[in-house]
Write a structure and sequence with these properties.
Layout: H1 5-34, H2 36-58, H3 65-76, E1 79-83, E2 89-92, E3 115-117, E4 123-130, E5 136-142, H4 148-195, H5 210-260, H6 266-298, E6 306-308, H7 310-320, H8 322-328, E7 331-336, E8 343-345, H9 347-363, E9 370-378, E10 381-388, H10 395-398, H11 423-433, E11 437-443, E12 447-455
Parallel strand pairs: 7-9
Antiparallel strand pairs: 1-2, 1-5, 3-4, 4-5, 6-8, 9-10, 10-12, 11-12
């Protein structure tokens, strides 16, 4: 019955309210048991009688203190006592009828209501006044008693039932509204979660308490990431299919030409075989890149950490591209800061990163341009930059330059296609596997620079590094 959050919140509020009302009722009942109001009324009456006795003694028709005390005792039904200056009993209007009452001595800790007990233990309320002859006038009355049962049934119970019922009803309504305020946004989150993984699901409106709003915002963020992941997966499958379709069509077409005799001479057959070889090699490279990306994504790629001399690595990359750079008429130069510390990393993987960056830079740098490789230590990191003097990359393309299968070639070199668009994605994954980051800075007509930041305090293990 109370399995839902809303009903449990409502029940919790109801129990809290009933508990609060019960505590109020107990406090009121204890207050009635002590009955301080009636005690104060009796004490004030005793003081008034005391004043009457003193006025009769000192008035124009003065009476002896004993006569005034006896009259006041009979008239107001109180007990009047007179004590000498050494606190010995002189007069007691109840003498012979009641047990003796001692002189009420002052105590270190005074009670809120003046109280003295007779020799039988009965409690008396009293009022004391010192007279002009140094005697003490004491007016006392038995502590009033009242039937708690009657008081509770006649006065207290109807009041608490009426006010408590109204308060309980209003509180339950407020509790219900509070429960809805908390539970309704959660119900929307539940409904949205059940609708997942629909691509048409919309973010849930942030309502309710701060904690519920935080949960809603976190859920909306999860929805965005999930939808982005689904779109990425759909785009990935579409891109892979597209990239494989073109070489497969070429391979199938030229193989068919060989089989059906369309390639009827040695030159045609040689051309068909060369196309099949080139396209199969392209597919092979793309499959290897996809496998590499999958391992990097899963954190199972073989990354063997060891000391790396960055100057030697960059010079090796430059030498690798010497024939290509000479053919393109582009200068490739290396600038390494002096006393550059060694880096703990996977040298082969980093060579793969910088090879890809230099290859792209050479493809998009016109003849007479320069491709620069530089390395320096900055704030506990090694910064390696690969820059070119090419046409640059548009700002809108820079946000997607590391996306898989994304190609901005049309903005850099007339739309000529190079590769499947996986090189930069792999480079980014390798850098992140080393705990680093890669960024791009480019302006149209001024060139492009890729900056790789790698922590100098890298891992020293020589085993597989599994990224989480």
């Amino acid at each position: 019955m109370f399995s839902s959050l809303r009903s449990r919140l409502w029940l919790s509020y109801a129990l809290l309210i009933v508990t609060a009302l019960g505590i109020v009722a107990v406090v009121l009942l204890l207050s009635l048991l002590r009955n301080p109001i009636l005690y104060r009324q009796t004490t004030e009456r005793l003081k008034a009688v005391q004043t009457v006795v003193m006025d009769r003694e000192n008035g124009p028709q003065s009476q002896s203190i004993s006569v005034a005390a006896q009259k006041a005792s009979r008239t107001f039904d109180v007990r009047v006592l007179l004590f000498s200056k050494d606190k010995q009993l002189i007069l007691d209007t109840y003498s012979g009828q009641e047990v003796s009452l001692p002189f009420p001595e002052k105590k270190v800790i005074q009670r809120a209501t003046p109280l003295v007990r007779d020799e039988n233990g009965a409690a008396w309320l009293y009022s004391t006044e010192k007279l002009s002859d140094n005697t003490y006038l004491v007016v006392a009355s038995p502590r009033p008693r009242i039937s708690i049962v009657n008081l509770f049934a006649d006065d207290f119970l109807p009041l608490i039932l009426q006010s408590g019922s109204i308060a309980l009803l209003l509180s339950l309504v407020v509790a219900f509204l509070f429960a809805r305020w908390i539970a309704d946004p959660l119900q929307r989150v539940v409904a949205a979660a059940r609708a997942m993984p629909s691509a048409e699901i919309k973010p849930v409106e942030s309502l309710g308490p701060h904690e519920v709003q935080e949960l809603t915002r976190a859920f909306n963020s999860m929805i965005e990431r999930t939808q982005a992941s689904q779109k990425s997966q759909r785009d990935f499958v579409a891109n892979v299919s597209h990239e494989l379709k073109t070489p497969l069509t070429s391979v199938q077409g030229f193989a068919q030409a060989i089989l059906d005799g369309t390639a009827d001479n040695e030159e045609a057959r040689q051309q068909a075989a060369q196309v099949i070889f080139n396209e199969s090699g392209r597919m092979h490279r793309m499959v290897l890149d996809l496998l590499d990306l999958a391992r990097l994504d899963a954190g199972t790629a073989d990354i063997t950490m060891s000391p790396v001399n960055m100057s030697a690595l960059l010079n090796a990359v430059r030498e690798k591209f010497t024939p290509q750079s000479q053919k393109a008429g582009v200068e490739v130069k290396v600038e390494v800061a002096p006393n550059l510390p060694s880096l703990t990393a996977d040298g082969d993987r980093l060579a793969q990163v910088f090879t890809n960056l230099v290859d792209n830079a050479l493809k998009f740098t016109p003849s007479g341009g320069v491709v620069s490789l530089s390395a320096s230590a900055v704030n506990g990191e090694m910064r390696v930059s690969v820059s070119d003097t090419g046409p640059g990359i548009p700002l809108e393309a820079q946000a997607h330059i590391f996306d898989r299968f994304y190609q901005a070639d049309s903005s850099r070199k007339g739309g000529e296609k190079h590769g499947a668009g996986l090189g930069l994605a792999i480079a980014q994954e390798i850098v992140q596997a080393h705990g680093g980051k890669i960024s791009v800075h480019s302006r149209l007509g001024e060139g492009t620079s890729f900056d790789v930041f790698l922590p100098l305090m890298g891992k020293s293990a020589t085993t597989i590094v599994r990224r989480k």
